[in-house]
Amino acid sequence: MADTDDTSAARVKARLPRGFADRGPAEIAATERMLAAIRDTFELYGFEAVETPFVEYTEALGKFLPDQDRPNEGVFSFQDDDDQWLSLRYDLTAPLARSVAERFDSLPKPYRSYRCGWVFRNEKPGPGRFRQFMQFDADTVGAPSVAADAEAAMLMADTLEKVGIPRGQYVVKVNNRKVLDGVLEAIGLAGDENAGKRLIVLRAIDKLDKVGPEGVRDLLGPGRMDPSGDFTKGAGLSADAIARVLAFTDAKRDDAAGTLSALAEVVGGSARGVEGVSELDQISVLIRAGGYDDGRVVIDPSVVRGLEYYTGPVYEAELTFEVKDEDGKPVRFGSVAGGGRYDGLVARFRGEPVPATGFSIGVSRLLAALTVLGKIEDKAGLGPVVVLVMDRDQIAHYQGLVAQLRRAGIRSELYLGGAGMKPQMKYADRRGSNCVVIQGSNEREKGAVQVKDLVLGAKLSGAPDRETYLAMQAEAQFEVPEAELVEAVRKVLARHAG
Fold first, then answer.
1. How much of the chain exceeds pLDDT 90, in percent?
2. pTM for this structure?
3. φ and ψ at residue 296, rounded to 5 degrees
4. 364 and 424 in a common domain
5. Which of 496, 474, 494 is nearest to 486 (CA)?
6. Is residue 265 part of a domain?
7. Is residue 284 within 8 Å of 293, Cβ to Cβ?
8. Is 151 in the same domain as 272?
């Protein structure tokens, strides 16, 4: 009869859920450095921090309202003990709208805030597409003037430069939803009866960067067959209507004045379209006054992402430098941040118009861009000073040495494993330590410790002659009284501070 291993049978398989990722110390350290730079820039503009919970009532999120017994389209949802549906937030904007609406009367208005945190999407994961990712948002609520939109665009530019994207390797593009609304009015798609057709047109334009102008032309007309053989039904617009929509997306000229003139022509006599062009003109004046009209912030109708969601100006930060794909072909990194005016979101809770505008930075994407540019160090930072344990019965004494270092503000740890000296040295090396503290019985009887510089010790083999070797060896490991431990460790750490 075969033996059975109950322990093996009960063992849980260690596996990571699809679309999620573990993060190591190097990535966490790099992310924290980048987030600190973003935070500094946001606060320079007068924005203040606020934090909302991961979980909201599903109905408060708005975008993914449940239409079945279980709301599982796009969000992770569950029911609490009183049968209320709750969901993990899918962005940071909807929770902000709920928070502002709840505290509306007590908040200063305009209310300028920033938030950073994880968001969750219950979508099919893929390369570079995760179900959990981090965003960093800045929003102004209660400011109807497009000056708030212009400031957001300028803040985008300053933030990218603060984190290390050089000027000339990014551009912030500004467009306006109202201009497109004017184009739709001009081609006869105004009114509630055309809402469905307008949505098809918006979605077709939103695919401009994926399928190109000809692909959008097909989607605006009879439809498009993609390479996989799937057919997408088109909007069925006339040739003239298609030409006008494409003229909108292609209205970019060499300067803001030329672009605005082209947009004014494409919206025809639409009052809403004229209003949108006027708002872009105002933003252009503010951008020029701030000194950002040097190519950092431009009026560009090619920004079409999110036009279904936003109500006015939209803006997007795009990286313009090229990287190589897996096949060695040059590709652009693309957008790392985007946003716009969403005057209807807070109104869902208040029942009255509340102007709001803001943008979101894709933290992981921006970090990846900085890594490509060589702006991110692939390290977790300086490891702790490790106090080795040579005599197990003296561990309390070693603990006192560690405490002495920590009181002096020196990051340090006591080796808590069960290995001997050589494995302890290897452990310190893997921890990224610059030095270790060694005390055997001989040193302890004298009230002394040995301080070993691991960085200098690793260079001993490269000494050009014996005299240099001996000098380096004396520096690499030396003995000091316990009372001088802190000073000696600081000396080693300072040696490698650069």
1. 65
2. 0.84
3. -75, -40
4. no
5. 494
6. yes
7. yes
8. yes
pLDDT digits (tens, 9 = 90+) for 112-124: 999 999 999 988 8
Rounded Cα–Cα distance for residues 66 and 53 (Å) = 20
121 is in an annotated binding site: yes
Q: Which of these three, 338, 372, 406, is where a domain ends?
A: 372
**469 carries a ligand binding annotation:** no
Residue 65: per-residue pLDDT: 41
45 annotated ligand binder: no
Q: Are 311 and 269 found together in one domain?
A: yes
Q: What three-state secondary structure class fits 67?
A: coil
Q: Mention every residue, 6+ apart, whose C-beta is less than 8 A from residue 210.
A: none
Tell me if 69 is assigned to some domain: no
Any known ligand binding at 103? no
What are the φ and ψ backbone dihedral angles of 28, each rounded to 5 degrees? -65, -45
Of the candidates 159, 102, 84, which has an alpha carbon nearest to the alpha carbon of residue 346? 102
Separation of alpha carbons 347 and 128, rounded Å: 34
Domain count, the chain: 2
Say whether 404 counts as a known binding-site residue.
no
Amino acid at 111: Y
Check residue 378 and give its pLDDT.
Answer: 59
CA-based nearest residue to 184, from 206, 161, 165, 202: 202
Q: Is 310 annotated in some ligand binding site?
A: yes
Residue pLDDT, tens place only, 240-253: 999 999 999 899 99
Q: Does 98 appear as a known binding residue?
A: no
Provide φ and ψ at 335, rounded to 5°.
-75, 140
456: domain range? 385-495
Q: Is 67 annotated as a binding-site member?
A: no
CATH assignment of the domain containing 450: 3.40.50.800
92 annotated as ligand-binding: yes
